[in-house]
Every structure is written in structure tokens, then in C-alpha cells.
Design a protein that fits this description.
single chain, alpha/beta, four-stranded antiparallel sheet, 15 helices, 15 strands, about 15% strand
């Protein structure tokens, strides 16, 4: 079965056919780094990390880009309230993000571009839109002419006149049409700003992703993904900007994960019911949180409460116990049975079932159900009078392979590659700061995990002992 993806743009499942055979260009909208991430940010990080892992499992070479919005109104406000500055605050929460998502088993993106490091490309993009008649300057601000883009509303499936009915011009905005949105904002006194043809200012939110996706992945990408809340206006506006500039489809497949409900209420900052990952990981095993997130299909809303998290932990432990029981038997097992082929065939059928579920719009929930079937069959096999090391090893290999696809691990003392990289980066930073005690502490921690470091002129290398 080929992979089927539910495309928000067409509102139906479509066969996944990448632009270039064997390669996938994937862009996932990252966080605005003015605070620690909440579980609503964690869900897309986990979901699309799993999508990436499965694509790689299927043999695709995935180029995965996820940005940081490291300057905007929220950052300016937070920096002012904390008596800090925008770059310092952004750097703090970027590093916190890396630590949180690494704990959740997420691989680093191939690129994590920042808005502040791509300002020239953003300005060039805006200038090109102006030259094509899709944007205009107004007293230092630059706005996009929304009505000029004939297909506006095609992602959110909203008619432009309906959008106008709910639109309002905010205080200080100087646009020609209520639907026009900002590409560049003139700086207010005391705000961080960059030089531009229209005076000092900073980009609007939507233009950033259009410019960085084009720069690092090209005019058309295979998969653009993010939370459901980004479909409108953020992704709608990205389409308008990018397709107006290039005349080509911006993304072939649009993926959006569902909302999170806290105790049966949609999580939102206005309700004050959002939960920071930084806080929850103090009391909850991050792997349990990942398993919990993947136990619901990514497009469905997910209900979050302590009881459901506890149940997820119990369920995950059942799978690990089955694996450990098989591992223990392998130590004492010999090839004593002649019915290897029957059991090996059952295991292959379970692998095929798992792939069928994942091929069906990355259905991790039903994929996890197959893992429980694998555990059940493994437990049944251990009741056999005679067992074979060949069959047990096949069970173990399958557990490990499918757990890896979901970004889960079976051995508690096993560090994922990205977690090793994170610790090594912290050690390098500690040595730069001459904090040799911390550097030695990290080296010792890695040594206990059977990670051997080698400091060379080319940098720090590592291998498993």
C-alpha cells in the first residue's frame, strides 16, 4: 500500500507522490520563542517527528525544516516585562525548546532557521511582491493586497466576502482594505528593528515562513505542516504570498494536527488552562507524554487529563514488559522447535499490519494497537513448550523497529542520538564558559550510558561503547 495523506487543501486523502522520487521536502511551522512551549506546541513536534520517521523508515530521504520566530510583538512585550532584550529572551527559549523536544524523543530538524538570521531574504521577498503589484507601502508599513490573489481562502475553504464580514482594522493600521495583512511593520520607539527600503521595522508573522521555506526548500515543497490553528490565517496567507510571487503551488500536501482539550475544554491562554511542557516533565515521564500523544490519530482532538496520562503510562509499560520477558527468554533459549516458520510468518504479518495503518494517513493510534497485538503474540509464544532463539530474536527486532518508528525506546537507559547530541552541545558550551565541572559531569553521565567521547581538532565525536 502506498502512503495516503489527508490534504487539508482538498479535504480528502490523496496518494503521496513527492516532487522528486525518493525525496521529501517538509516544512513544519515552529514556535514563537517568548516562553516555554506548552503541550499544544508539543503535539505537532511529536506528530510530525513521527511522520518524518515513518517516511525515513519507508526509504525516503527527508529534508526537514522547522523555523523559530525569534522576533514579533509577543517577544517584544515579554522582553519588556522581564526587563530583558529580544535576542537574549529568544535564545533562552530556543535552547529550552531543544531540551524539551529532545526529552520527548523528537529529532532535530535538518535546519532550524531563525527570522533574525534571514532578514535580507524576507525583505527581498516583500520587494518582489511589491514589484508584482501584490503589496503596497503605507507610512512605513507594507501590506499584502489580499483581494488581488484570486484563490485566497482555498486552504480554509472560506469565501473572501465571508472573511470580510468578520474582519476589523486595528488601531494604528493604515491599510487600503480590511482584509489586507502586514508584510512589514514600522518600528515603534524603543523597539528592536532592521533597516529596510520602507524605514526601520520588522517582518509581519506570515511572510517569515514563506521566505524561509522558499530559501531552504525551493518554490514548491512536498509537505507543509502545523497545528490546526495555523490553517487560517497563517497558512492561508503563506499560500497567497508564495504563489503570488512564484506562480507555482506552494505545497502539495497540507497537514494539520487537531486541538488539545484540557478537562473537556479547548486549551487556550484566554482560559488559563494551558500546560507548559517544562513543568509537566518534572512529574511525567516524557516518553509517556509522547506515547499518549500518539495514541490518538493526529487529526482528532486529544483530551488531556491526569487519569488518561496515567493509563498511557500503564499501557506503555505493558509493551515494555512483553519485550523484556522475550529478552530474558532469549538468554536461556535454544533452537528447540521446528515450527519457526509459522511464528516468523505471524511476525511478518504484524509488521505488514503496522505499515498498513501508518500508510493510512500516519495512523499512529492503530499502529499502537498492532504493537499490542505483537506483545500478545510474544506472550503466547513464551507459553510454548519449546521455543526458538530465532523466533524470539525476530520478536525483539520487530519491537525495536516499530518502537523506533514512533520515536519510543525500549531500554530505559538508552539515549537517542539527538539526546546525545544535545548533551554534547551543552558540554561544548560549558567548556567555552570554562565551566569544567559541568563539562566533566556531562562526560561522566554519557559514560554511564555507554557513550564514549573523543575530542578531536575537528570537534567532539562519539560512539556507543
Amino acid at each position: 500500500m502506498t502512503i495516503q495523506i489527508y490534504n487539508t487543501l482538498t479535504r480528502k486523502k490523496e496518494t503521496f507522490i513527492p516532487l522528486e522520487e525518493g525525496k521529501v521536502k517538509m516544512y513544519v511551522c515552529g514556535p514563537t520563542v517568548y516562553n516555554y512551549i506548552h503541550i499544544g506546541n508539543a503535539r505537532p513536534a511529536i506528530v510530525f517527528d513521527s511522520v518524518r520517521r515513518y517516511l525515513e523508515y519507508k526509504g525516503y530521504e527527508v529534508q526537514f525544516v522547522s523555523n523559530f520566530t525569534d522576533v514579533d510583538d509577543k517577544l517584544i512585550k515579554a522582553a519588556r516585562e522581564l526587563q530583558s532584550d529580544v535576542p537574549t529572551l529568544a535564545e533562552k527559549f530556543i535552547q529550552a525548546y531543544f531540551e524539551d523536544v529532545a526529552a520527548l524523543g523528537c529529532k532535530k530538524a535538518d535546519l532550524h532557521p531563525r527570522v533574525t538570521e534571514n532578514m535580507d531574504d524576507i525583505i527581498d521577498f516583500i520587494e518582489a511582491l511589491m514589484q508584482k503589484g501584490y503589496a503596497y507601502e503605507s507610512e512605513g508599513d507594507v501590506y499584502y493586497k489580499t483581494r488581488k490573489f484570486a484563490e485566497y481562502g482555498k486552504l480554509s475553504h472560506q469565501a473572501i466576502d465571508e472573511l470580510k464580514a468578520g474582519a476589523r482594522i486595528q488601531v494604528g493600521e493604515k491599510k487600503e482594505d480590511v482584509l489586507d495583512f502586514a508584510l512589514w511593520k514600522a518600528a515603534k520607539e524603543g523597539e528592536i528593528a532592521w533597516d529596510s527600503p520602507w524605514g526601520k521595522g520588522r517582518p509581519g508573522w506570515h511572510i517569515e515562513c514563506s521566505a524561509m521555506a522558499k530559501k531552504f526548500l525551493g518554490d514548491t515543497i512536498d509537505i507543509h505542516a502545523g497545528g490546526q490553528d495555523l490553517a487560517f490565517p497563517h497558512h492561508e496567507n503563506e499560500i497567497a504570498q508564495s504563489e503570488a510571487l512564484t506562480g507555482k503551488p506552494f505545497a502539495r500536501y497540507w497537514m494539520h494536527n487537531g486541538y488539545i482539550n484540557i478537562n473537556n475544554e479547548k486549551m487556550s491562554k484566554s482560559l488559563g488552562n494551558f500546560v507548559l511542557v517544562h513543568d509537566i516533565l518534572k512529574t511525567i515521564d516524557p516518553e509517556v507524554l509522547r506515547f499518549f500523544m500518539l495514541s490518538v490519530h493526529y487529526r482528532n482532538p486529544i483530551h488531556f487529563n491526569d487519569e488518561l496520562l496515567k493509563n498511557a503510562g500503564v499501557a506503555l509499560e505493558r509493551l515494555k514488559t512483553s519485550y523484556q520477558n522475550l529478552k530474558h527468554r532469549l538468554e536461556v533459549s535454544a533452537n528447540l522447535t521446528d515450527n519457526d516458520e509459522e511464528w516468523l510468518q505471524k511476525i511478518q504479518q504484524l509488521i505488514a499490519s503496522f505499515e498498513n495503518e501508518m500508510d493510512n494517513d500516519f495512523n499512529t493510534a492503530d499502529g499502537i494497537t498492532v504493537l499490542f497485538d505483537l506483545a500478545k503474540q510474544g506472550n503466547l509464544y513464551l507459553r510454548e513448550k519449546n521455543t526458538s532463539s530465532k523466533v524470539i530474536q525476530s520478536f525483539l527486532n520487530t519491537f525495536e523497529k516499530l518502537f523506533s518508528v514512533l520515536g519510543l525506546r525500549l531500554n530505559e537507559d538508552e539515549l537517542l542520538d539527538e539526546e546525545v547530541d544535545q548533551l554534547i552541545e551543552r558540554r561544548i558550551e560549558a567548556r567555552k564558559n570554562r565551566d569544567f565541572a559541568l563539562a566533566d559531569q556531562i562526560r561522566d553521565q554519557l559514560k554511564k550510558m555507554n557513550i564514549i567521547l573523543e575530542d578531536t581538532r575537528q570537534g567532539t565525536r562519539w560512539k556507543r561503547g
